[in-house]
Design brief:
3 domains, Rossmann fold, 444 residues, globular, alpha/beta, seven-stranded mixed β-sheet, five-stranded mixed β-sheet, 12 strands, binds glutamic acid
Amino acid sequence: MKAEINEFMESLKQRTPGEKEFHQAVQEVAESVWDFYMQNPKYRKNKILERMCEPERTIIFRVPWVDDHGEVQINRGYRVEFNSAIGPYKGGIRFHATVTLSILKFLGFEQTFKNSLTTLPMGGGKGGSDFSPKGKSDGEIMRFCQSFMNELFRHIGPDTDVPAGDIGVGGREVGYMFGQYKRLRNEFTGVFTGKGIGWGGSLIRPEATGFGAVYFVRHMLKRLGKDIAGHTFAISGFGNVAWGAVSKINELGGKVVTISGPDGYVYDPDGISGDKINYMLELRASNQDIVEPYSKKFGVKFVPGKKPWVEKCDIAIPCATQNELNVDDAADLVKNGCWLVAEASNMGCTAEAVEYLKEHIDFAPGKAVNAGGVSVSGLEMTQNSMRYNWSREEVDQRLQIIMQDIHETCVKFGSGGKRIDYVKGANIGGFVKVAEAMLAQGIV
Ligand code: GLU
C-alpha cells in the first residue's frame, strides 16, 4: 500500500512542484482513504481521488490599491474553486502575508471534505491574498477589499461560489467586500457569509467555529466517560476561533489557561474568564496581532516568542494556523499529562505531530473539529434563501446536531483500532459523499 501511495504522491508532486502544504494535506487524505479506495473499483476506474486533487478552477489576479501615503501597492488575489460536486464552492478568504497558492490549495482541498462532513450542500473552495491587515488603517483595508472584489465579483455568486472569513478577514472585511459586490452587480444576495446581523448575517456565526469545536470535544469526552467541566485547556491564538472556544469552555465549566499570538503566549493560571474573554475582542480589534497587552492588563505571565504547548493541561486546542504544533510540541504536551488534542485551526499539527499524537492520546483533525464555522455559514445561506432569520437558540441547536453528526461519522469510519481514528473517520466520511456525487455526475 505504501508503494502505491508514494507513486500517487510522486505524480501529484511532479504536477504541483513546491506546493508543500497542499502535498501534506493530500498525503494525509490518501493514507486514510487508500484501502477504502482500493476496495471500490468504481472510484478507482473513474479516478475520483485524482480528480479530487485537481481544483475545478483557480483564479489568480492582481490587486492594486493606494495606501494612506499615496503610494501604489500591489498584492496578489486568489480564489481556488476546488470541488462543486455537492454544492456551490464554499470557503473562506484569508488575508495574511504568508498566503500562497499552496496554502489556499491545501485549505480548499480540506474544505471540500469538511463541507461534506457538515451534512449541508456545500462544495469546497478557498481564497485570499498576501495582503496583511496588520497595522493598516480602516481606509486602506476598505480600498484593498474593494480592489480585491473588483476582480472576484465576476467569479462568485449565491449559487456559484460563496466566500466567507478566515484569518485576517472578519465582519469588517466581509462588509467591505459584500458592499462592493452589491454595487458592481446591483443585487443584494447571499453571496457572502459572516455578514452583519442587520444585513443578512446569522446569529452565532462569529462564535460558531469555537463553539462547534467545543461541542465536538464534548462528544469525544463523552465516549471516554468525561466532560468539559473541571478540565484545564491550553489554547493557541486569540482571534475569532480562540474567542469562541474560550467562551464555550467557560460556559461548560472548563478552565482555559493559555492564549497566544505571533509575539508569544500568555499563561493565566486563574483561567481566562469573564471580562478577560471580552478583552480578547479588544486585542483583536486593535489590528496589532499581539497578545502581550493581556499579560500587562491582568498581571500574568507572558512568554515571548514561544508557543503554549509547554504548559500543563488536560486538553489542547490549537486555534491559530497551519502547522503550529510540531512533533516536539506534541511530545511536550503528552509528557506534561495532556490526554486529548483537537485541532480547531486548519491542519494545525504537522504530519509527524499527528502521527505521534494518534499513537499516544486521543486526537481529532481540523476538518471535523472546526467544521462548525462553515456549518453556520451553510445555515446563513439557508436563512438568506428563505429571507428569514432564525433565533440564537435555533441556530445553536442546529449547530449542535451537526457537530454530533460529524462526530458519529468519524466514529463510524474511524473505529477498529485501540482508539477512534478521527483522522481516518473524517477523511473517509468526507470522501464518500463527494465521491458518490462525482460518480453520478459523470466525467466533468
Ligand atoms: N474559514 C472557515 C473555515 O476554514 C469558514 C469558511 C466558511 O464559513 O465558508 O472553515
